[in-house]
Amino acid sequence: MNKRNRIISMISSILIWGSGQFFVCKQRIKGLILFLLQLIFVGIELFSGYWLEALSGQIKHFTIRLHGGFFTKGIWGFITLGTKEGGRNGDHSTMLMITGIITILVLIVVLGIYIYNIRDAYKMGKLLDETGHCLSTKEYFKSVYAKFFAYVILIPIVIFITFVVIMPIIFAIFTAFTNYNSNHLPPGNLVRWVGFDNFKKLFEIPIWSSTFFSVLRWTVIWAVLATFSTYSLGMFQAILLNSKYTKCKTLYRGIMILPWAIPQLISLLVFRNFLNGQFGPVSKFLMDIGLTDHRIAFLSDPFIAKVTILIVNLWLSFPMFMIMIQGILSNIDKSIYEAAEIDGGGSVKIFFHITLPLVLRSTAPLIVMNLAGNFNGFGTIYFLTNGGPVNTNYQFAGDTDILISWIYKLTLDQRLYDMAAVMNIMIFILIAAVSIWNFRRTQAFKEVE
Length: 449
Description:
Strand content: under 5%
Number of helices: 20
Number of domains: 2
Structural class: mainly alpha
Radius of gyration: 31 Å
CATH topology of the largest domain: MetI-like fold
């Protein structure tokens, strides 16, 4: 079999993008587009730096830091994070890292186009060897339009998500491997790569490790209890509202939606004032009616504060589950319940063998997402207790701090960006593991697959 065209087409496209398509396969427009992309890539590097001046001998001491182009300077900045600190002309390490990340993302796209260019040249050359003719540019773009139209439409969204969502995540991950903290703040100071030193500090230094595992333990307890307490109360209320014996359902439903309808921030600040152990009206009322002879430290006692947070969150969040579960209950075929009653099933058996399985099957994805959301439930903790009361045995954390509120304090109050980034990675691993495990066991997702 003749392989001449595919080899010539591939080798020529390795050197000059699109040349195989243009000269061998006669796909002029496609070849010109690929060649234009190569020119743009090379042009950005040449004209964003001083390569032409260096090649012409105008620059005697060429350095990538001062004279490199966009891509070479971006890679240099990412690797070194700067070499000159302080002053107006010093290097800004975090900006160099961000520029480096952008450079790497762009280079990944360029590499993808380059690989596509080579594979397409080989594929078109192979088609020419086997059939004696190639697709015209018009035919090629028509086939691409038919097969990949949805992907083409998604490209702008993917680009937007990459730079708005993915790039900050990548920056946070890389920050965990640097010494970016209050002692190394650019541009006055340079940031340096430290490898896994921050992770070792988290697990080997007692004050850090004890704080981390204590906060992690409370974070898990908080996420699990906050999720299943609100789900259980929401289901209980939905069953009551769905009962044929309940009157004025619309009125009760409207009243119980109010905690969900009112902005959570306002509710939390109101609760913070009501439950103030020194001046709050709740403690005073309990003393006035004789239930206690002293004010209760709702927000300043470690154990009571945690219980208070869970109760307040229960009041704020159960209406969401109530409404969703009520909608599911209203769509369950009533003949199933009638058949169960004929077979002698009581209310308890009907609930555990019919109602609960059907509701769980429909709401399992919602439970998983709510559980993941509670791991990052910053607002409830911060606006109610601010992570307090203060624990002197913890490293910059309070008794009710969860990981996300601890991260907030490490960044905004202590400017320990490196350790905060480590915590971010820990949260990501934890939430990802829990979510993936639950999703794989969820029947709703199995049916979709």
